[in-house]
Amino acid sequence: MSQTLDTVFAALADPTRRAILAMLLEDDMAVTDVAHPFAMSLAAISKHLQVLAEAGLISQEKRGRVKWCKLEPDALREASVWMQGFGQMDSLDLDAFERFLAVEIGLEAEAEIPGG
């Protein structure tokens, strides 16, 4: 299970791959259509698609001369179940956490200044 989660989360870590998944939410797309909005080569997009396919997040099939990509939403189920386990925790007050970090970092910075 953890290797599958590692692969899925590694694939999701890249903003380009997340954008591709969002595009595929709408419908299946040809690889060239997936590549169109990105300022990168078709080869670079193909590498992103390969990572997504290896994680099981998309499938690819050849229809005639065109390679099509399809979202595989079931691949996210295991990751979603894992993340929902953290939903039982109290929500984190990010503002308070940011203030805490600012104080802690500020104290460390002062401690590093000679004579401070």
Quick rundown:
The chain is of the alpha+beta class. The protein is built from 6 helices and 3 strands; from the N terminus they run ααβααββαα.
Summary tags:
alpha+beta, 12% strand, Arc Repressor Mutant, subunit A, 116 residues
**Count of individual domains:** 1
Q: The biggest beta sheet, please?
A: 3 strands, antiparallel
Number of helices: 6
Query: What would the CATH topology be?
Result: Arc Repressor Mutant, subunit A
Describe this structure in words.
This protein is α+β, with helices and mostly antiparallel strands. The chain has one domain (2-112): Orthogonal Bundle (Arc Repressor Mutant, subunit A), CATH 1.10.10. It has six helices and three strands, in the order ααβααββαα. The protein has a three-stranded antiparallel beta sheet with strand order 1-3-2. A hairpin with a 2-residue loop joins β2 and β3 (66-71). It is elongated and about 60 Å long. The N and C termini lie far apart (50 Å).
Topology, element by element:
Blueprint: H1 2-12, H2 15-26, E1 29-30, H3 31-35, H4 42-54, E2 58-63, E3 66-71, H5 77-84, H6 94-112
Antiparallel strand pairs: 1-3, 2-3
